[in-house]
Design brief:
By secondary structure, the chain is mostly helical. Helices cover 56% and strands 0% of the residues.
Length: 39
């Protein structure tokens, strides 16, 4: 199941990026993190 692990990895990266932005108080109503899926 390579797609599942790739999707899981992408989600983990998005969560980590969101936490970094929140820790630096950059994430607000107008800020976000996005990524593309290869699906």
């Amino acid at each position: 199941m390579p797609r599942l692990s790739a999707s899981r990895s992408l989600i983990q990266d998005l969560v980590a990026a969101s936490r970094v932005l929140a820790a630096h108080e950059v994430l607000d109503a107008y800020g976000h993190v996005s990524a593309r899926s290869d699906r």
